[in-house]
Every structure is written in C-alpha cells, then in structure tokens.
Design brief:
Radius of gyration: 15 Å
Largest sheet: 7 strands, parallel
Helix content: under 10%
Mean pLDDT: 95
Low-confidence stretches: none
Strand content: 35-45%
Length: 214
Amino acid sequence: MNNTHSTGSVIGVDDVGGLVGHSCYDGTVSNSYSTGNVTGYSDVGGLVGNNRGSVNSSHSTGSVIGVDNVGGLVGNNMGRWDGWSTVFDSYSTGNVSGNQNVGGLVGRNDGTSRVCNSYSTGNVNGNQNVGGLVGKSVGIIAQIVRNSFWDTETSGQATSDGGTGKNTTEMQDITTFSGVGWNITGVANITMRDPSYIWNIVNNVTYPFLSWQS
C-alpha cells in the first residue's frame, strides 16, 4: 500500500488499525497516513494493528485505545521466522491508552523486528509495560530500536523500552536528528518542502515532518 490514507474512525477487536488491520509477510505500507481514532482490544495501532511487513515514511495522528499491544502507529510489530518486521522513517502524534504493552509509536516490538529513525509525541497511558516510544521490546533493545525518539513532556512518560527521550525543545531541534544520521533538512516555513530529503523541519518551530506531506 503506497501513497494511501484514511480519515475515518475504526472500531474492532483484534488486529485493528487506522489504515491496515494486519499487514502480512512482505506487505509494505509506505508514504501513507491515517487521521482517524482507533479503538480495539489487542494489536491496535493508529496506522497498522499487526505488522509483519514494513512501514516506511508514514504517520498517524488519531488517538488509539486498546487493552493489549497498543501503539500510536503500530500495535504489534511482530517477529518473523524468515526475517524481521520494520518501522522506518515514521511518526505518530496521537494519544495512546491501554492496559499492557502500550507505546507512543509501537505497543510491542518483537525480537526480530526493527524501529529506526522514527518518533512519537502523543500522551501515553497504561498499567504495565508502558513507554513513551515503545511499550515492550522483546530482544536486544539497542539493536532493534535505533535513532528513534519520543517527547518526554507531551507523552507524560520518562521511560521507554527502546529509543531516546527528549524534551519538546530538543524534539524541534534539527541537530537531535541530523546528529544520528537522519536524512533531514531545514525549510523556511511549514508550507515549504524539500523532496530531496526524507524529512523536513522548520528548525526550532516544528517537529520533523515527511517531505511528501502536503
């Protein structure tokens, strides 16, 4: 699924996503977004509920409510016997609420999956395994969550099972991201885009945004 989007609210039980419920092996979601609120029980995500493929250069903004494996972008970033699932160059801004494995970006990230060059800013609430970026990581966190951040002020969370927490000022500073190798450049205002980079930012004014966004 490339260059797609959804705006409606979604309600379900398991594998519930704002755009995709269950992304199967080798499935790809790229240059896509969701703005609707999402409610479910297990594996609930603002963009993808259960991801067994790849999510690239995408974002979600709606609120997400669930019980188990609840994430602002992806509820459950599942492991695969033949490789790994990935979330690259993506972000979420919606509030997230659940019981366990609750994260601003990803609820549960499996040991053979990856989260790289991504961030979240939404408020996060839960009871067990709750994180500003990732609720629960299974595996070697330093290898599977890289160069990714969450806003400690807006999320209300000081910790995450992977990623680096930054305050709002730092999250709007280009050096936070360029310093770890993000493909990012500054633009003069929010209406401008430089498509030669994956990420754009109005330095000290906005969070990073994807250059394809209108």
